[in-house]
Amino acid sequence: MLAFGIIEFGRGMMVSNMVTNAAREGARMAVLDGSTNAEVTSAIQTFMISALGLSATNINVTIATSPGTGNPDPANVIANCQPGDLISVTVQVPFDKVALIPGNYLAGKTLTGQSSMRHE
Length: 120
Prior knowledge:
Elements: H1 2-30, H2 37-52, E1 60-66, E2 86-94, E3 110-118
Antiparallel strand pairs: 1-2, 2-3
Helix pairs in contact: 1-2
């Protein structure tokens, strides 16, 4: 049981790092001119599907924007962002969808990755 616990913990850490990396790559894509919310969400989902074999319904992507000093509120739409606006990308995956060992001990837990960058 101890060995299975160590393996499952390692899997959780690996998936957590992948979720954080997906959020970072999504934020990097979002800060570039011409990006849209749909493109960023699709890129993140494609990465997570190919890396973990998840379905798109198990991947929750949230994009939030905050206006930079003197900029109008972009209303969480990447295409409305101006230089200096902060874009935050959050990616969430339920742990029970990526676990190697079936069980209910971590059911309902979510692995979350977040990254924030300023629009260029």
